[in-house]
Amino acid sequence: MTQPAVREQARVAAEVAAAAAAEGYEAQEASAILAQARAAVDPELRRAVEALPGSMRRVARYHFGWEHADGTPATGNAGKAVRPALVLAAVRALGGRPERAVRAAAAVELTHNFTLLHDDVMDRDATRRHRPTAWTVFGDADAILAGDAIQAQAQRLLAEEGHPAASAAAARLAACVVELCEGQAVDVALEGRDPTDVSLPETLAMAEAKTGALLGCACAVGGLYAGADDEEVEALDAFGRCAGLAFQLIDDVIGIWGDPVRTGKPACADLAVRKKSLPVVAALASGGAAADELAALYGPPGPKKEGVAELEAIALAVERAGGRDWAQAQAADHMSRAVDRLSQAVPVPEAADGLLSLAEFVTRRGY
Amino acid sequence: MTQPAVREQARVAAEVAAAAAAEGYEAQEASAILAQARAAVDPELRRAVEALPGSMRRVARYHFGWEHADGTPATGNAGKAVRPALVLAAVRALGGRPERAVRAAAAVELTHNFTLLHDDVMDRDATRRHRPTAWTVFGDADAILAGDAIQAQAQRLLAEEGHPAASAAAARLAACVVELCEGQAVDVALEGRDPTDVSLPETLAMAEAKTGALLGCACAVGGLYAGADDEEVEALDAFGRCAGLAFQLIDDVIGIWGDPVRTGKPACADLAVRKKSLPVVAALASGGAAADELAALYGPPGPKKEGVAELEAIALAVERAGGRDWAQAQAADHMSRAVDRLSQAVPVPEAADGLLSLAEFVTRRGY
């Protein structure tokens, strides 16, 4: 794409976002869809967790935000439930019965949470949903085992389910787990490499595997439960993947330029830990003097001790090298591809409303 | 059980083992069954591993013994394939078609190997099947991810399978994973506790969850694939569980009194690392002067620097406190229970031959 085309797309995306924020109705609709999905799926999630024995039940209850570390009840923050909402919205979009897909939606959410538990162990991340991560509270072994057991419970939900689409959904979810693991493996491998030695295509592929794959799988599972044909299921998967990549691009923009008041994280959080996020990799790969300047500022991998001024200088260098514009244009491009693919699976625009609201919601997060 | 009854049972068990060893025919038959199972399942295992992307494929190939750490081919030692052999033997015992249960047998073996990969990470075990463990070669993250992906591949095999029993088998295998995780969680928790503070019932429950559960599940899955009714499936599960506990008891005896030439491990290996194995816990729980003497020698948890003479003194103390006799009598008792439960599922003795040979093989290992 030419530079003017990129800018034009970024401008359009910004306008779309601004218009939506001004009206606020999609966000409102998405919030209602998410709240409904959380309410529908919560009993299944709790049943799956309560069926776990001893220490794993405690870790899972804590991770889902239902208990404090000391075992006392918490009015939890179990996450936004984007993935189960996508499952149920996809069922609805294809004319199926969402109430029959609640267990499948719960299985997708359990799978997501198993990967979070394990990723936090591997990445040594200390915070998740504004609380200490499970491994910091219960140790590595209990966090790994809780993750393993939650993956098993996800598959058990589908295997014990009578729905004719359950086996196909289980196979798709298991294949997705392999892709999620691959995304995490590449992410861990990139961690240790010099930032100038990381290519944009491999970073995009990693983001698709880590984030796009499960959003795509959620939509595809919804399609399967609604009796969609192969082509519709693949189009739904592609919709979720593209929306997932758009989300990741926006999330990476927020990780650098997000307002600390809104994000709850310090300014330039991703730069402070030298995360190889998409805007940074794109900026470094852009060539020319601005990229060289950024490479010099970025230095070798690993966290640094820097003040806000130094981090803001890096953020400016990323912006000068085109990283911010590129990411916003790419996000808009992926969202438009998502919309295209969705129209293949769901030709009637009104039927696609729920899925579109959710996709717009996740890509507008923090704005 | 009274002391004379325990001794009598131990004597009978020893006689049975000696007679079998003299004739050697069950061992021969078991070896043939195992070799056949390995040959049948190997292509499915390789397909599941080859379908993994990048780093996880490398870790899995290494773990299964098909590749060296540098990626060159190895004429591997992928384990004895006891679990897939149990699946196929159970199908045969119930009059089913073993060739239709090969994928299910592979799914059980994949599940076993996923737990080995994760257990080694948690236990920081450095050796598995006479080679460095995967995490020591590839790091924790890649070993955890390979395990996660292998669990997913096991479920995928069953979900993509057309067999009418596949969903029931998948549900049973997933429930078994939760039990395996619980066994490992209790094992890790017991590690850190004072040996005199560990009860025999909880150690037996841990051994059943860690070892008995998957042997039971393998037999039950075989039953499901042969179209067995609920009662037969539960009897097969109980057979595998009892045989698994008998195996663990004998394995623990070998871990203390096994011949280093045969085991490939140093004498008293389990005592050197203060493993809370069943004979030790039974000896400590026996009460009286011999138990007190052992407790004093055993000391707090953790590895010690001791010579062979000191370790042999501890082994003698375990024996004096009745730990060895108890374990052998318990093993014989569990084997006899296993045989009872098997006869409920498979009333015709000849049909049960294969399963019995396998059970006798695993409980005679190293003798």
From TrEMBL, chains A, B:
PROSITE patterns: POLYPRENYL_SYNTHASE_1 (PS00723). The keyword Magnesium applies. It holds the Pfam family polyprenyl_synt. The keyword Oxidoreductase does not apply. It comes from the Bacteria. Keywords: Magnesium, Metal-binding, Transferase. InterPro entries: Isoprenoid_synthase_dom_sf, Polyprenyl_synt, Polyprenyl_synt_CS. One of its GO terms (molecular function) is transferase activity. SUPFAM superfamilies: Terpenoid synthases. Belongs to the FPP/GGPP synthase family. This is Family 2 encapsulin nanocompartment cargo protein polyprenyl transferase. It comes from Streptomyces endophyticus.
